[in-house]
Design goal:
This protein has 314 residues and is an alpha/beta fold. The chain has two domains: 2-142 and 286-305, Rossmann fold (3-Layer(aba) Sandwich), CATH 3.40.50.2020; 145-283, Rossmann fold, CATH 3.40.50.2020. The protein is built from eight helices and 16 strands. The protein has helices at residues 10-20, 60-76, 105-116, 145-155, 170-180, 222-233, 250-257, 286-297, and strands at 2-5, 27-31, 37-41, 49-53, 81-86, 120-124, 139-142, 160-164, 183-191, 197-203, 210-218, 238-246, 263-267, 280-283, 307-308, 311-312. The strands form four sheets. A seven-stranded mixed sheet has the order 10-9-8-11-12-13-14, sandwiched between helices. The chain has a five-stranded parallel sheet with strand order 1-4-5-6-7, sandwiched between helices. It has a two-stranded antiparallel sheet with strand order 2-3.
Length: 314
């Protein structure tokens, strides 16, 4: 087994290889003067089971192209099996045609991963689970919920209500409410644009209770901050937000600083610089991904990674 990493999230790659107990593969990634990416695999991979780690975080297109070039280099170096490990799968929000003459980029990226030469995909908390069906190769879809669960249980929050910030996240919120033994509420929203949302209605009782907002990703934090504002106005005692992938651009950071969210709990699936003025707790998914890689390598089931404390995340 060999694990190589692109430049999107090297700290996570080192944590994963430390967990497994092998060194990170030696790979040279650089750029030509015109910006084109150059990759050279600096060690023999002939007949090896190879894993390429790359999150499609900003700059998204650059990191995607870097991964495709790495996979192509490994394929041409006669690796026996190549698994694309995408802790965060970008372009996943465009998973259907919701208006005329628009692309389905989640499917396009799936096609490109296969065309580059990947034999398998390992990813975490897809924006929509049906994206697994866009691939004609095996997909192992992990959940960050077990890592989140351990942290939330350690906080021993009383009178907790899990809230989905939109109708599309009900399934994820319900899974969290089941394992945490809490009640469930929903915020119905209307999206004005890619960066603005308007929270409309709260379904459920949250007055005088601690609230946990659950979502898969946030970038501009519009959905989370508007939902938190509504929840506070309806009498919520405190508001926590639990997000698997926190990309957080400047607009999102500014909104969080001014928001009613007391703590943002997220993971290290994407690399972020330190943020001042916002309480962010980053939990590592390296152990989860590392264990999945070990089991895939030995052709063992990864199903038990979805189960914890008598509950399932799916």
């Amino acid at each position: 087994m060999k694990i190589f990493s692109g430049t999107s999230n090297l700290p996570l790659a080192h944590k994963i290889t430390d967990y497994i107990g092998i060194p990170l593969g030696d790979c040279k990634v650089s750029a030509f003067p015109d910006g084109e990416t150059f990759v050279k695999i600096e060690e023999n991979v002939r007949g090896q089971d190879v894993y390429v780690l790359q999150s499609t975080s900003p700059p998204t297109n650059h990191h995607l192209m870097e991964m495709f070039i790495m996979i192509d280099a490994l394929r041409r170096a006669s690796a026996s099996r190549i698994t694309a490990v995408l802790p965060f799968y970008g372009y996943a929000r465009q998973d259907r045609k919701d208006q005329p003459r628009v692309p389905i980029t989640a499917k396009l990226v799936a096609n490109l991963v296969v065309a580059a030469g990947a034999h398998r995909v390992l990813t975490m908390d897809l924006h929509a689970q049906q994206i697994q069906g866009f691939f004609d190769i095996p997909v192992d879809h992990l959940y960050a919920a077990p890592v989140m669960y351990e942290y939330l249980k350690s906080k021993q929050i009383e009178d907790l209500v899990v809230v989905s910030p939109d109708a599309g996240g009900i399934k994820m919120a319900h899974a969290y409410s089941q394992v945490l033994g809490s009640s469930l509420a929903i915020v119905a929203k209307r999206r004005k644009s890619a960066t603005e949302v308007e929270s409309m209605t709260l379904i459920g009782d949250i007055a005088g209770k601690s609230v946990l907002l659950v979502d898969d990703l946030t970038e501009t934090a519009g959905t989370l901050t508007e939902a938190a504002k509504l929840l506070k106005s309806q009498g919520a005692k405190s508001v926590l937000a639990c997000v698997s992938h926190a990309l957080l651009n400047d607009l999102g950071i500014d909104r969080l600083r001014k928001s009613d969210i007391d703590e943002l709990i997220t993971t290290d699936t994407v690399l972020r610089s330190a943020v001042d003025g916002v309480r962010i707790t980053t939990l590592s998914v390296a152990g989860l991904l590392g264990e999945a890689i070990k089991r895939i390598h030995h052709n063992l089931s990864v199903n038990s990674l979805f189960e914890f404390h008598g509950a399932r995340t799916s």
